[in-house]
User: What shape does this take?
Amino acid sequence: MTKHVAVIGSGVMGHGIAQVYALAGFSVSLYDLQEELLQKARASIEKSLSLLEHEGVITEQDKSAALERIVLTTDLPQAVADADVITEAVPEVIELKWQLFAELEQYAKPEAIIASNTSTFSIARLIEKAQSPHRFIITHFFNPAQLVPLVEIVRHEKTAEEVVAATVGLMKRIGKAPVLLKKDMPGFIANRLQAALMREAFHLLAEGVADAEEIDTVMKEGIGFRWAFVGPIETADFGGLDTWKRVMDNLAPELDQSTTAPAIIAERVEKGELGTKTGTGIYSYEHISVAEKLHARDEQFIRLAKLKKSGGN
Ligand SMILES: NC(=O)c1ccc[n+]([C@@H]2O[C@H](COP(=O)([O-])OP(=O)(O)OC[C@H]3O[C@@H](n4cnc5c(N)ncnc54)[C@H](O)[C@@H]3O)[C@@H](O)[C@H]2O)c1
Assistant: This one.
């Protein structure tokens, strides 16, 4: 039975994953390279827990107990020594992950599960150099990991059945909605669906069909409004497959077929306009508080999660 979890990397994803485990009652070691990064992660966790408390999802005691369960450390052997499950959320660089896995195999208990939060590497690639491939698995959390219910789980044929079953059970125990893929596929399910939609959104923008705000409104007020409760395949059934056959036959040839990132994104990247992190992306963030925007986003996500919980899926 899992009691102790180690999370390696305390950045955008790692701190949220640590928060989820701690709130679910597990003792968590959160590791990063520098103390300063860990302090920043702890402050983010505290802020997020405060918001959950403010929204009535957890109590003040839940918040302080969760914080007490998280131990910050820059000592890798110490972080993983007692861990039953180790989740890595270090940058998406394969050599970095391989190097880390070699260290984890050296320092962790032989029975500890090693889970990766990779968004793009296949499990086959991740375990290429592993000495104990049977204990490797992907648990792909969605940003913000502490709020979005989905976790995609990807196994390899060498992953032990007990590891797969334990991981699915663990994700349910921490309140997540796990989906176990039947195949190892680049981008898994969620990022493939998202990339297909992004490609078309930027195509519409480039074609001047609407401005960015209007395209985002179509998503938020139309498609996205439905999709929190009705998936695309259900949508096809509800609309009628005869109708959807005509829609797809007529529209599929019209859709963007590009095989590289949209030119608008590439041009902005070239100029160093990376979005909220630089103050300008497609929109400008120079005169608004990104922190306030993220706070408002998280508040809405918490309310949506409550709504989904109260009404089922
Ligand atoms: N950001 C997202 O939206 C998102 C969503 C899903 C999955 N992911 C995946 O999660 C992983 C982490 O992404 P992120 O966005 O949290 O990155 P990030 O850059 O925000 O955080 C990575 C953290 O790992 C630390 N780190 C770097 N090298 C390390 C090492 N050798 N050992 C331990 N820690 C190290 C860094 O100091 C940093 O704090 C990546 O594999 C990424 O593809 C990201």
